Amino acid sequence: MNKLRVIIADDERPERFFLKALLADFDDAEIVGEAENGAEAVEIIKKVKPDLALLDLDMPEISGLEVIKSLRKSQLPLIAFVTAYDDFAVQAFEINAVDYLLKPVEKARLRETLNRAHERLEQTDFRETESANLTAAIENYEMNAPKELLERIPVRVGDEILLIPVSEIASIIADGELLHITNKQNKKFVINYRLKDMEARLAPEKFLRLSRSALVNLEEIAKISPMPGGTFLVTLKNKQEIASSRSQSRMLREKLLKM
C-alpha cells in the first residue's frame, strides 16, 4: 500500500502538533506540508499535490471552505475538515459524504479517515466525485449556518490570493455567478459568488443594494442624481456610475435623502 501524502492546515500550532503526533503512529501516511493559514494551505496544495488535506474549518481570513473555492478541480486533493462541533457543518458534511474530524481528534477516527482516503484514491473519478460532494456541502452549510460578517474578501489574481478589506470596497456588481468588485482606487477583481450571499455577509448599515445586480458602499457615494421614473444615478467617489432600480430607489431615499 502506497503511503498517503498528507498536509495539515490549522492556525493553532498546538492543534497542528497534535495531528502530526497522531499521524506519526501510522505507517501508511506521511506529512508533506504544514500550513498555519488558508492562503498557505492553497499554495502548499498547489505545490506538493497531496493525496489528503486535513483542513481546519475555521481558520481566519481564508477558511477551510474558502481554501476549496480557491482550488481548481484538477488541483483538489481528498479533503477531511477538522472542526469543533458545529451542527450546521456536521449536517452538511454527512448529507454530502464529506469527511470530517471533530476536535479533539481521536486516533481511531483519524484511522477511519485514512482508510477512506485509500479507498477513494483507488477510484478513477475520485476528483470528480470529491469536487461534487464538496460543492454541495459548502452550499448546504452556507445556506443554513449563521452568517458572520466579512472583514476581508479573498480573491485570486493569477497564482496569488489577495485579501481585499471590505472597508476598501466601493461597489460589487453581479454578472451571472460572477461578482465584479471595484475598490476605492478603481481596481477591479472578480470572484465566483452569489450577490445575495455576499449581501448577507456585509454590514447592512454600510452597504446598500441599488438594484438586483449592484451593491455599493454608502461611504463611497459622492453624488445622487434624480432620473426619470423616480430612479437615481449614483456616482461614487471613484467616478463609477450605477443606476438604482425603481424598487431600491425607495430605500435609497429613506437611507440617504431624508434629514
Description:
The chain is built from eight helices and 15 strands. The chain is of the alpha/beta class. It has two domains: 4-144, Rossmann fold (3-Layer(aba) Sandwich), CATH 3.40.50; 152-256, OB fold (Dihydrolipoamide Acetyltransferase, E2P). The strands form four sheets. It has a five-stranded parallel sheet with strand order 2-1-3-4-5, with helices on both faces. It has a five-stranded antiparallel sheet with strand order 10-9-8-12-11. A three-stranded antiparallel sheet has the order 13-14-15, covered by helices on one side. The model has no long low-confidence stretch (mean pLDDT 91).
Specify the CATH architecture of the largest domain.
3-Layer(aba) Sandwich
Number of domains: 2
According to CATH, what is the class of the largest domain? Alpha Beta
Q: What is the H level of CATH, i.e. the homologous superfamily of the largest domain? A: Response regulator
The gyration radius over C-alpha positions equals: 22 Å
Order of helices and strands: EHEHEHEHEHHEEEEEHEEEEEH
Main beta sheet, described? 5 strands, parallel
Number of extended strands: 15
Q: List the quaternary state of the chains.
A: single chain
Structural class, from secondary structure content? Answer: alpha/beta
Choose one word for the global shape.
Answer: elongated
